[in-house]
Structure formats: C-alpha cells, structure tokens
Design goal:
Number of strands: 9
CATH class: Alpha Beta
Strand order of the largest sheet: 4-5-6-7-8-9
Strand content: 35-45%
CATH topology: tt1808, chain A
Helix content: 10-25%
Number of helices: 3
CATH architecture: Alpha-Beta Complex
Shape: globular
Radius of gyration: 15 Å
Number of domains: 1
Order of helices and strands: EEEHEEEHEEEH
Length: 153
C-alpha cells in the first residue's frame, strides 16, 4: 500500500491502531484510513500546497456533487479566492491506470463544476489539462500552473 510515488516526499503523519494504518488529513483535519487512493490523494494535497502555492483554505476534498441525479464525490477541488472551482483532481490507486474511463469520470464531474483546469493521477502518472469553454476544447499541459495562474485564464 505504501509505495513510492511520482510526487515529492510529503510530510505525512501516519499512525497505526489495531493493525490499521491511518493518515492525518490536513484539509479535513482528521485521521483517515490509509488506502492506496488516500495515499495518492494526500501526496497530491501536499504537492499542491508546497509546490503549486495553493493555500490550504482553497482546497476541498471528497467534495459532493450530483450527476444525473446520482451523488458523487470528486477527490480534490481547488477554488479561486472568489470561490469558483479552478482545478479538479481525480486520484486513483497506483495500480489503476489513467485511461479513457478515468478521463470520462473527470469530464462528468467537470461538466457540473466548470473548472478551468484538471488533473488525473494515480501517483505514478499524471495528466494535466486546461478546459477552453469558448472553443469547447481541452488542451493537455506539460505541467500544472502555480495557483495564481489557475484562474488567470
């Protein structure tokens, strides 16, 4: 479960109780059971804060949304200082490939959220893109811009 990821090392706080490993989530401010997907999500959160200059208060996790009458949750959502979504991130466990199905899942979320940027990650591979609503197109990016450039579109 705890495998090296293609993210910088994160200062995660891990504890073990009754044989179960937990990780402290700095966004939700509570211990969460450490699953492979949570391992990726927590690394992504720390990367956003430490390397992309995203303020902790601009990050939401497991954000609820409704798609076609069904309740869903997006893994990470970053908001502008004005409260609009500017980045949606879908995290998968390291052994789950980033494929068309995962991209479709994220596209469904973003149809509701209207975020300008997106990222798909399994901790090993990352796909980053920018939505151009005027041209109704998606542009893949080599790197995710810093926070202040996410809403400078």
């Amino acid at each position: 479960m705890i495998v090296p990821l293609n993210f910088p090392t994160a200062p995660l706080q891990l504890t073990k109780r009754n044989g179960v490993v937990y990780v402290w989530c700095i966004v939700r401010k509570k211990k969460l059971k450490l699953t492979p997907e949570e391992w990726v999500r927590q690394h992504a959160i720390h990367w956003l804060i430490s390397y992309k200059k995203v303020p902790l208060g601009a990050i939401g996790t497991e954000v609820s949304l409704t798609i076609n009458g069904l309740s869903r949750r997006c893994d990470i959502l970053v908001f502008t200082p004005f409260g609009s979504p500017c980045l949606v991130i879908e995290c998968k466990a390291p052994d789950i490939p980033i494929n068309q199905e995962v991209f479709f899942q994220l596209a469904q979320y973003n149809r509701v959220l209207s975020s300008t940027h997106f990222m798909l990650t399994n901790g090993m591979n990352h796909t980053v893109g920018q939505q151009n609503s005027k041209l109704n197109s998606v542009e893949l990016l080599e790197n995710l811009p810093d926070y202040d450039r996410l809403f400078d579109v």
